[in-house]
Amino acid sequence: MALRTAVGVLVVFLWSVAVVLGKNVWSVTYTTQSICTLKGSTVELTCSYTYPSGYTVTTTLWFTKIYNEENYVSLLDDPDYKDRVKYLSNKTNGHTLTITDLRESDSATYMFRFITDQTGGKYFGSPGVTLSVTDLQVKVTTTLLSMTLTCSTTCTLTDNPSYIWYRNSKIVQEDSSPSYSVYFKTEDSFYCAVNGINSPAVCECD
């Protein structure tokens, strides 16, 4: 009786393992789920994916738009991204989406989809990667004796970049802080830069 019970438990256990493994056969894993970056820059979104053995992947794509249940618009075919998108696959089921010359209108949720050679063998990964694209502006706060300039964005930039401050086109500060202070009135012009992207110049003139 004890042996029969043990065998029954083992069968149930193995069945449970098979169910769990079956659920995980189809998957898409994104390297990061949220990115904030600058207008005019380049971004890379990466993921890896799995599917059942014996299947062959025939199509891979990234999308933000779905027109109907089976009409997922590849970014390569989306006129809003014309000549700004590249796909790169590797041999270990990794995939990279590169978008150049980013626009604020590119802010969206990006998802990866793949299709195999088997009937019904298709999958996309949710929730995807949320991309936020922001411009770079300088905010000015003044008092009687000082002026504080802050390199401002609408979201917190990914990867904690350095902020470079220019005064009359010469570098005066490079720091992780987005702020720069001047302790007297000046007619000089200032702007900040992050990863080669410049803000508009400002001048605190009398």
TrEMBL record:
Keyword Transport annotated: no
InterPro entries: Ig-like_dom, Ig-like_dom_sf, Ig-like_fold, Ig_CD22, Ig_sub
Domain Ig-like: 127-206
A Pfam family hit: Ig_CD22
Family annotation (SUPFAM superfamilies): Immunoglobulin
Superkingdom of this protein's organism: Eukaryota
Signal peptide residues on this chain, from the entry's feature table: 1-22
SMART domains xrefs: IG
Entry keyword set: Signal
Coiled-coil intervals: none
Protein name from the UniProt record: Ig-like domain-containing protein
Species in which this protein is naturally found: Hucho hucho
